[in-house]
Design goal:
Blueprint: E1 7-14, E2 17-26, H1 29-40, E3 45-55, H2 57-68, E4 72-74, H3 78-85
Parallel strand pairs: 2-3, 3-4
Antiparallel strand pairs: 1-2
Length: 88
């Protein structure tokens, strides 16, 4: 959505589920943008993380928090999976 934030979030629908495809680097202002878009997407949301290249500590914590709230994390790369699993 905002290229100067080093992140792009594209929204699509799969039936009643809103799917947010997250591309780029999840850091700094991009973390707040993802939180804002995920909240606005409603209650039945999935994040497609196949094009997420990196996340800083705050980005990883945000992804964990979204998952804890019931947002499905899909197509997580091995690197992002490692970050999500580390120091939990």
């Amino acid at each position: 959505m905002l290229s100067d934030l080093m992140i792009h979030i594209a929204q699509s629908a799969e039936g009643k589920k809103n799917v947010l495809r997250v591309e780029g680097w999840l850091q700094d202002e991009a973390v707040a943008e993802l939180q804002r878009v995920a909240e606005a997407a409603g209650s039945d949301v999935a994040l497609d993380l196949s094009e997420l290249r990196m996340a800083d500590k705050r980005g990883v914590e945000t992804l964990r928090g979204l998952a804890d709230r019931g947002i499905e994390l899909r197509r997580v790369s091995p690197l992002i999976a490692l970050l999500l699993d580390s120091k939990r």
